[in-house]
Write a structure and sequence with these properties.
By secondary structure, the protein is α/β, with parallel strands linked by helices. The protein has helices at 15-19, 25-35, 55-61, 65-69, 75-78, 84-97, 139-196, 201-232, 245-262, 280-297, 355-365, 396-430, 441-453, 464-473, 490-498, 519-528, 540-551, and strands at residues 40-45, 50-53, 103-108, 114-123, 130-137, 241-244, 266-271, 275-278, 303-310, 314-321, 369-373, 381-388, 433-437, 457-461, 478-481, 509-514, 532-535. The protein has 17 helices and 17 strands.
Length: 553
């Protein structure tokens, strides 16, 4: 039998001596198997003391042949305490049956750490006093199992997230449908009754008021949805400048006061001057949204407190109410898009669940932080917003930004004034005529009627091509054009007009009146050549006022 079958641990001994206890062909096969180092093989006595080991066994344990030989090792030395009972059972079974059922355990490595293994014991022969132990390293198997379990857990988590997203999508679409259709019902209902001409003067006034109120509500829903979408996808740019945040907070409180007063909700304020670098309109929007949320969830005769205080390096806005509160389960998701604590058909409070999500994005864009606190149902809510405090003396970049923005604003005003001056003579010649362009007949009719009621001479056309033909006949004082039109949209129309000589209408003052209502759309209209951007639906009185400002009536 070859002498290198089992790693030598005593001088002058080898695997032939280890395996010779059987005295038959089986020992030779065992010796070759041990030498192959497929699994760890070691020889020990019935008390669990280890005598010899092959190279694979030494690798598993981290011993050198010499270290193994001098270690006086036994299974207890190499086994964590929690596995001792398994060794005792296996050795007892081996003594009785000649072998044991393989079992899993761990072996302690020299120098620290452990190795997961599969162990099997067998008597070297029927009458032998030595026990041969086979040890299979399960490290790779366990690693693979762990990775598989991790991947399985990730897959299950991803599946759960997809299911949650789908559920949230369905809930949001259902809510969106409900919120948009609800104001349509009184609009359509009263419109039908008005068309029949059978309403009394009193009922007619009620009908018109209901139509106006619900149309404004639906318009606000659309604005909120578009604003949230643009903020979510990073399509909103801020016009930052040094400002006193207390002014935005005070303006927001004034704006929300009528709604609070209608529910007899008392608003108390403690507002200190606090300089920040921010977009005044967006900061006011943040406060207004938070206050509207507080009013919405605070019952009649409740209380809302607004506190704005400066600290060493930050500004803290705190809005606390005595309202519904937020449940502990929902609190971590209060600022998520399209998430509402109650999405059931029996919910008490309406809305799309976009307000707080929009606020969080705007706060982040101002380098601030926002969080909510609530002790639960009917315990009220505290909304806390922190902004960086502006150090005016050391913020040269902010001053520069402010100057640049001021210059830009001045330039815009100069351009508008120049356009108005350039068109003054044309306005007088055209007797304050307006060229109105819209492919939607209903929009064209109502806008034309509103302007004519204000004494404006209106030329109405339903396409960009027709508008260019109308300019050849008469140059108006003002152009009002839709943007979304077939064949030639509003952008194409105004660019073609700006290429014309002044006497042919090239410098006519132009307003974009369109349902494309985002800040991005407004900037695009101005860049294309319009002086103003107005979003549909627009109050006829507001439209007449803007026209009067630009060309005079």
């Amino acid at each position: 039998m070859p002498t290198d079958t089992i790693s030598q641990v005593n001088s002058g001994t080898s695997a032939d001596r280890m395996m010779s206890v059987s005295g038959d062909n089986r020992s030779g096969c065992l010796g070759h198997f041990a030498a192959a180092d497929v699994v760890g093989v070691c020889l020990g006595d019935r008390s669990g003391n280890l005598v010899k080991a092959n190279d694979e066994m030494l690798r598993i344990l981290g011993y050198s042949p010499e270290g193994f030989a001098s270690g006086h090792l036994c299974w207890h030395n190499l086994t964590p305490l929690e596995y001792w009972y398994l060794d005792e059972l296996a050795l007892s079974e081996t003594k009785v049956a000649g072998r044991c059922v393989p079992y899993e355990k761990a072996l302690l490595r020299k120098g620290g750490g452990s190795v997961p293994v599969m162990v099997g014991h067998s008597l070297a022969s029927k009458d032998a006093v030595d026990i041969v132990t086979f040890v299979l390293d399960l490290s790779e198997v366990k690693r693979t199992e762990s990775e598989r379990e991790k991947l399985l857990a990730q897959a299950q988590s991803a599946q759960a997230q997809v299911a949650q997203i789908e559920r949230m999508r369905d809930e949001f679409l259902a809510t969106l449908s409900h919120e948009l259709r609800t104001p349509l019902s009184p609009i359509l209902g009263w419109s039908k009754l008005l068309q029949k001409g059978q309403l009394s003067e009193e009922k007619t006034a009620i009908a018109l008021n209901a139509i106006e109120k619900n149309a404004q509500h639906q318009s606000q829903l659309v604005d909120d949805l578009l604003d949230s979408a643009h903020i979510l996808f990073g399509k909103v740019s801020l016009r930052k400048a040094p400002m006193d945040l207390s002014q935005a907070v005070t303006a927001a409180v004034d704006a929300i006061y009528p709604a609070a007063n209608a529910k007899e909700i008392a608003i108390t304020t403690e507002i200190s001057p606090c300089m920040v670098l921010g977009d005044a309109a967006r900061l006011q929007q943040i406060v207004r949204e938070l206050l509207a949320n507080a009013v919405k969830f605070t019952p009649r005769s409740g209380n809302i407190s607004v506190t704005l205080t400066p600290a060493a390096s930050s500004v803290r806005l705190l809005i606390a109410d005595t309202g519904k509160g937020i449940g502990a389960d929902f609190l971590p998701y209060a600022f998520d898009h399209f998430r509402q604590e109650d999405c059931s058909t029996s919910r008490q409070f309406g809305g799309l669940g976009l307000g707080l999500a929009t606020v969080r994005q705007l706060v982040k864009m101002h380098d601030g932080q926002i969080f909510a606190e609530s002790k639960g149902e009917d315990a009220g809510t505290r909304l806390v917003v922190d902004f960086p405090l502006l150090d005016i003396g050391h913020d040269a970049s902010a001053t520069k930004s402010k100057t640049t923005l001021a210059n830009t604003a001045a330039s815009t005003e100069t351009i508008a004034e120049a356009s108005v001056e350039a068109s003054t003579e044309e306005s007088e010649q055209s007797q304050c005529s307006v060229l109105l362009v819209d492919d939607d007949d209903d929009s064209l009719e109502i806008t034309s009627f509103a302007l004519e009621q204000a004494g404006v001479n209106v030329i109405s056309v339903n396409s960009g091509a027709a508008a260019l033909e109308a300019l050849k006949v008469q140059v108006p004082a003002l152009l009002i054009s839709d943007v979304g039109m077939p064949e030639m949209d509003g952008y194409m129309l105004i660019r073609k007009i700006r290429q014309l000589p002044a006497e042919e209408g090239g410098k006519v003052v132009a307003i974009a009146l369109t349902a494309y209502a985002s800040e991005y759309d407004s900037e695009r209209c101005i860049d294309a050549g319009f002086q103003r951007h107005l979003s549909k639906p627009i109050d006829p009185d507001v439209l007449v006022q803007v026209v009067s400002e630009l060309v005079g009536l």
